[in-house]
Design goal:
By secondary structure, this protein is an alpha/beta fold. It folds into two domains: about 1-270 and about 475-495, 3-Layer(aba) Sandwich (Aldehyde Dehydrogenase, Chain A, domain 1), CATH 3.40.605; about 275-465, Aldehyde Dehydrogenase, Chain A, domain 2, CATH 3.40.309.10. It has helices at about 10-20, 60-75, 80-100, 100-110, 115-135, 170-185, 200-210, 225-235, 250-260, 285-295, 310-330, 345-360, 395-400, 415-425, 440-450, 485, and strands at about 25, 30, 40-45, 50-55, 145, 150-160, 160-165, 190-195, 220, 240-245, 265-270, 275, 305-310, 365-370, 385-390, 405-410, 430, 430-435, 455, 470, 475, 490-495. The strands form six sheets. The chain has a seven-stranded mixed beta sheet with strand order 14-15-16-13-12-18-19, with helices on both faces. A six-stranded mixed beta sheet has the order 9-8-7-10-11-21, with helices on both faces. Strand 8, helix 7 (about 200-210) and strand 9 (about 220) form a beta-alpha-beta unit. Bound molecules: NADP nicotinamide-adenine-dinucleotide phosphate and magnesium ion. Magnesium ion binds next to strand 3.
Length: about 500
């Protein structure tokens, strides 16, 4: 593990961006927080402060919601044609593409993930999301409905209004894109609160929002702490809809806070996604595929394949193979070109993930790879870990760890119903994968698994066109694809007596 506090050079755009405190984007202008407060942003590879950011609280939330309301009701946005809206969203994608390197750097030093990963995944996926949704702006339409008697009825699809969006730290830019793109395509106005750990790429995106020419107040970006800025947004009486991605615990607080004015709510919450491997699976593809499913993005992925269920005939070979892959992963600072896995996002999260590993080991689990929880150097690095000898009731099997930790169990049954029951034994239902050469088994399992995404012989495959979201306590609603538009649209039935 390379945990040396070596400093890697950053590009000029990134250095300039970090050189002065970043402010809040409210009503098309960069402003200080009303309280004047700022908070530090850390590089998780070194545990050092890299930027200062204005800290929004209730008063700033009020200002931002006011700006979004004016922009929605009376600003140029309210009368802009769908085609013009779509062009602005497309222009934002172009600007993001122009600055792709700078965004990948910010994502790397703020979240910890390897620069190479941010450059290959986060940034292009965000660009693609804006482009995909730009195309939808001109395709939102109602229908005509035949009624008995002499009436003409049709539906109108209208933007829901002022939308609050609260996002987590694991894919800061991509989560901002998932939220902003459909809301903009449908004509809503937005107040976005990034996670306090990772506000930088959203703020940089705010600069591009202004450069692209969005009217003032359409996009407001207000970093701050969840308990203050986030809670004030969730409770605000003039917010029409809240879209949240994060933990189930905070998701429940959002639901309660939203009850005051019954704002619409969509939630993307956690997961403990099962990975089911049948004895006929192609081991050459399954071993790296399952490893990618859990270790991608330091395991800080809501749909990570974190619970492995493998048939006893292949269990040992599979676990040995995944453990060998885990040991090969080079963990180190994200800006080091040789790093394949970066540090976890924060000291707090490092303590949480290593706490889970220790509790698993204390309850009798064995580490086939990793398992060392000592802190190496100043960064929050954790070894990719594979735990075997786990029992269904253990915390490491039941709870979302949100780190590079796989728990592996075996099944000996050939009864698909029993296998699916075990795979579904979780409060979550975000994703699942099935590994087999038998298309009939694969598709029967896909039908039985209670998850919003089921992957067959792959894991973590996402696309702007594919709906994503959870069954059970993994959330309400779907993001991406055509489905995401409904989150931001009201349907109005108009009937005329003829
Ligand atoms: P988190 O603590 O729930 O935070 C998520 C966001 O909510 C942050 O912006 C946070 O602000 C804010 N927040 C915290 N308390 C709040 C409150 N009382 N009212 C309003 N907002 C509040 O989650 P996290 O630790 O950042 O992220 C990890 C979790 O997100 C995992 O459980 C993961 O599975 C889930 N996740 C799900 C998806 C998905 O698509 N389903 C995607 C990514 C992550 P601060 O950070 O500033 O406190
Ligand atoms: Mg940070």
């Amino acid at each position: 593990m390379n945990a040396v506090s070596k400093v890697f050079p950053l590009g000029q755009k990134t250095r300039e961006f970090l050189s002065s405190p970043r402010q809040l984007l409210i009503d098309g202008r960069w402003v200080a927080a009303a309280s004047g407060k700022i908070f530090p942003v850390y590089d998780p590879a070194r545990g050092e402060v890299i930027a200062q950011v204005a800290e929004a609280d209730a008063e700033d939330v009020d200002r931002a919601v006011g700006a979004a309301r004016r922009a929605f009701e009376t600003g140029p946005w309210s009368t802009m044609s769908p085609s013009e809206r779509g062009r602005l969203v497309w222009r934002l994608a172009d600007l993001l593409e122009r600055d792709a390197e700078a965004f990948a750097e910010l994502e790397c030093i703020d979240n910890g993930k390897p620069y190479s990963l941010a450059k290959a995944a986060d940034v292009p996926l965000a660009i693609d999301m804006f482009r995909y949704m730009a195309g939808w702006a001109t395709k939102i339409r109602g229908t005509t409905i035949d009624l008995p008697g002499s009436y003409l009825s049709y539906t109108l699809k209208e933007p829901v209004g002022v939308v609050a969006q609260i996002i987590p730290w694991n894919f800061p830019l991509l989560m901002a894109a998932w939220k902003l793109a459909p809301a903009l395509a449908t004509g809503c106005t937005i107040v976005l609160k990034p996670a306090e750990q990772t506000p930088l790429s959203a703020l940089r995106l705010g600069e591009l929002v202004l450069e692209a020419g969005f009217p003032p107040g359409v996009v407001n970006i207000i970093p701050g702490y969840g308990e203050r800025a986030g809670a004030a947004l969730a409770a605000h009486p003039d917010v029409d809809k809240i879209a949240f991605t994060g933990s189930g615990e905070v998701g429940k607080l959002i639901v309660c806070a939203a009850a005051g004015n019954l704002k619409k709510v969509t939630l993307e919450l956690g997961g403990k996604s099962p990975v089911v491997v049948f004895p006929d699976a192609d081991m050459k593809a399954t071993i790296p595929g399952v490893s990618f499913g859990i270790f991608f993005n330091q395991g800080e992925t809501c749909c990570a394949g974190s619970r492995l269920y493998a048939h006893e005939k292949v269990f040992d070979q599979l676990v040995e193979g995944i453990a060998a892959e885990a040991k090969k992963i080079k963990v180190g600072p994200g800006m080091d070109p040789s790093s394949q896995m970066g540090p976890l996002v924060s000291e707090e999260h490092f303590a949480r993930v290593t706490g889970y590993i220790r509790s698993g080991l204390a309850q009798g689990a064995q580490a086939a790879a990793g398992g060392d929880t000592t802190r190496k150097g100043a960064g929050y690095f954790v070894e990719p870990t594979v735990l075997t000898n786990v029992k269904p009731g253990m915390n490491v099997v039941r709870e979302e760890i949100f780190g590079p930790v796989l728990v592996a169990s075996r099944f000996c049954d050939d009864d698909l119903i029993a296998i699916a029951r075990e795979a579904n034994d979780s409060v979550y239902g975000l994703a699942a994968s099935v590994w087999t050469r038998d298309i009939s088994v694969a598709n029967k399992m896909a039908k039985r698994l209670k998850a919003g995404s089921v992957w067959i012989n792959c894991h973590n495959v996402i696309d702007a066109a594919l709906p994503f979201g959870g069954y059970k306590q993994s959330g309400w609603g779907r993001e991406m694809g055509e489905f995401a538009l409904d989150n931001y649209l009201e349907v109005k039935a108009v009937t005329t007596a003829l």
